[in-house]
Design a protein that fits this description.
By secondary structure, the chain is of the alpha/beta class. It has helices spanning about 15-20, 35-45, 60-70, 100-110, 125-155, 160-170, 200-210, 225, and strands at about 1-10, 55, 80-85, 190-195, 235-245, 250-260.
Length: about 270
């Protein structure tokens, strides 16, 4: 078994985010000035977290956000970011580059709700979900393999400090649990993984955690917050317990979801 922390961050704001224009995969817009400020703010908030792995979507807005976060980190400024196309935003086909209101009109004309509507050339929600599952299972396998190698090479189990660096900052905030780890007998974290991705993709991944893996939630988290739009650089933390039998089996604990207190001092640039 391997126990690791998964921190998922949405990219910072782009000009098209502010203008409510769909970007998807085909419109590769960079961060706006506000977006760079948000990435820096997230980096300051996470500055003492000892990341062992960093993954990002290979689109510009996520690459820039990941770089902005690591730039502020005390331990990981020179860490290599792995860019993975499985972390890309949902593909919106013919709706990319068009206003969100147009997508809603297309969905209405088709007699469907906007979130479940698939524009021509776009990805279905099931296709996005499968990309998320593929990445998550790959990540669990990677951490399990590395943990097994460390056990084989190590004669002792000195503390790596990963848990302390997380507990220091994630016990606060209205969307977080009161305790980072309520199980004092739990094994030590073997990894702390940062993933930078996109809003629709993250909602799909979180829904997989909640619906399929029966993720436990903080008592303070309301249903409306679960369904709310993920803010730019919103931060979510999950503790994953993964074991490898015939197939990867994982249990998921949500410590906080869509944390945005780090943005309180960010002023939006017009």
């Amino acid at each position: 078994m391997a126990r690791f922390a998964l921190i998922v961050v949405r990219h910072g704001q782009t000009r098209l985010n502010k203008e409510k224009i769909l970007q998807g995969q085909g419109v590769d817009e960079p961060l706006s000035e506000t977006g760079f400020k948000q990435a820096a703010a997230a980096g300051i908030f996470l500055s003492n977290v000892k990341f062992t792995h960093v993954f990002s979507s290979d689109l510009t807005r996520t690459k820039q956000t990941a770089h902005g976060i690591l730039e502020k980190n005390t331990f990981c400024q020179d860490m290599t970011v792995i860019y993975d196309s499985r972390l890309r935003e949902r593909k919106y086909g013919v709706a990319e580059g068009r206003a969100l209101s147009e997508l809603r009109a297309m969905a209405s004309a088709a007699g469907q709700e906007c979130p479940v509507f698939t524009p021509p050339g776009g990805e279905t929600l099931d296709q996005v979900k499968m990309r998320g599952i593929d990445f998550f299972e790959f990540l669990c396998q990677l951490i399990l393999k590395e943990a097994a190698q460390k056990v084989a090479l190590s004669s002792g189990t000195p503390s790596n400090g990963l848990e302390a660096s997380l507990a220091e900052m994630f016990c606060l905030g209205k969307n977080s649990g009161s305790k980072f780890n309520s199980d004092s007998g739990a094994p030590e974290l073997v990894a702390s993984v940062l993933v930078v991705s996109h809003g629709a993709y993250m909602r799909s991944l979180f829904n997989y955690f909640l619906t399929d893996l029966k993720c436990s939630l903080p008592a303070t988290l309301s249903e409306s917050e679960l369904l709310s739009v993920i803010p730019n650089t919103g931060i979510s933390l999950f503790i994953i317990n993964s074991e490898n039998k015939r197939e990867v089996k994982a249990t998921v604990q949500c410590v906080c979801m869509n944390l945005e207190e780090h943005l309180n001092r960010v002023t939006e640039t017009c």
